[in-house]
Design goal:
Layout (H helix, E strand, L loop, with lengths): L1 H39 L5 H33 L6 H28 L4 H38 L1
Helix pairs in contact: 1-2, 2-3, 3-4
Length: 155
């Protein structure tokens, strides 16, 4: 049980570190994307920079929502609130956020096909896969809660 608490605490710190990094990305998205295009893209146009910046700022709220949901979920687990409807709700938020980021990536791919297909395709597929994994875990939590409530009624 001690190892589990250690793992939860490490996960909490990782979420918090990622929040700090995300804050930096939130503040500096435009210069970061400008550097990226100047360094790695042969078709560096102002229109592309604007489109990527808009896409980034559309995806950022979903990244923040996912971090909030993960933090709240880990805090609940640390305080022994595991199979709880609040956790199911947080997993649902995280799943929908991943799917939303995937949709934003798909729009960017369709606009800039084929130049961004590879780099944004990887991000889009990864976001979709993460959303799918979180959705499955959410469904497992929901089924466990239903079983727990049914068992509580029979006792």
């Amino acid at each position: 049980m001690k190892d589990n608490q250690k793992s939860i605490n490490i996960s909490l710190w990782m979420v918090r570190i990622f929040a700090v990094l995300l804050a930096g990305i939130t503040v500096g998205a435009y210069p970061i994307l400008k550097w990226y295009l100047q360094t790695f893209d042969w078709d560096n146009t102002p229109e592309k920079l604007i489109m990527l910046t808009i896409g980034m700022y559309c995806a950022l709220p979903f990244a923040w929502l996912t971090l909030y949901a993960l933090h709240k979920l880990l805090m609940n687990i640390r305080s022994k609130k595991i199979f709880d409807n609040d956790n199911v709700k947080m997993l649902g938020f995280a799943s929908v956020s991943c799917f939303a980021v995937s949709a934003i990536g798909l729009v960017i791919i369709l606009i800039y096909l084929p130049k961004f297909a590879m780099s944004f395709g990887i991000v889009t597929v990864a976001a979709f896969f993460a959303g799918l994994l979180v959705r499955v875990v959410r469904n497992v939590f929901k089924a466990a809660i239903d079983i727990k409530e049914e068992n509580d009624l029979t006792v």
